[in-house]
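Intended use. Records like the one below are meant for learning the mapping from a protein sequence to its folded structure. Do not use them to infer anything beyond what is encoded.
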Amino acid sequence: MIFRFKGKTYSLSLKKRIIPVSLSQIIDRLNNEPSEEIPLVVDGSSLVGKVALVTGGYKGIGYSIAKRLLQDGVKVIITGRNEEQLKTSAEKLNTESVTWMKWDIADRSNSKYYLMEAEKCFGPIDILVNNAGVSTDRKGRVDFDNMDRVHFHYVHDINTLGTRKLCMSFIERYGKGTILNILSNTSLRPAQDAYFTSKWALRAFTESMGLSNERKKVTINGLCPGPIKTDMSFGPGVSMYRKEIPNRRIGMPEEVAELAFVQLLSGLSGISGQITVCDGGEILN
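Structure written out for the chain above:
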């Protein structure tokens, strides 16, 4: 079929099916022009007024995510085990839209109680960002050959079991909302120590939850940072150059926060069970 529109000639072939679109939409496609219904930029207005809980939110990646959410009108509760650092971080953010709670997520028996206490701050929680985690205990990173039971459980109680319990408590209490689990690109590599295995387990749990139809009103996704300039990974004065990373540098917490922000927006639109990597291409090596 040949037709003219706005002075231009177009040829359209329909084969054994009816295309359920309007003529104007077809013309937009042919002209490579987006429809007015398609947003051209990321719009964070859907987050305004939402309430977010960010575990481990007083420093590093968690702090940057909390700060990013606050910029788009989200009310944020940051949690952690260090009361003084929580207070300092909340004061630094300097807004009435943020508050803090001392909360050890390894204490799985009280996760429901903590959620109820958190509601007293700004109301029901809409967004859960599970960022709290440890890479080691005071002994340092320990490989499998030298690992004892205490070390293994210390890491897994926080990174895996505590996070999983909080996810389950969130789903049970609200039945809707969005969850983002901060993983690690180590969850995509052969496991070498307790930190690696804890992130492997959390990645598997995140994907499994995304697959569950009975929880379709709660979206859950994962974000895998690579080497990021935080206290957990690198001390002060560390060189930002890394030759083993394709883009040759260590990432910044703010970069992870920006991607987390986009994932949370996507979660509100129904994307679930997806794992995104932010590591400068390191996992490709």
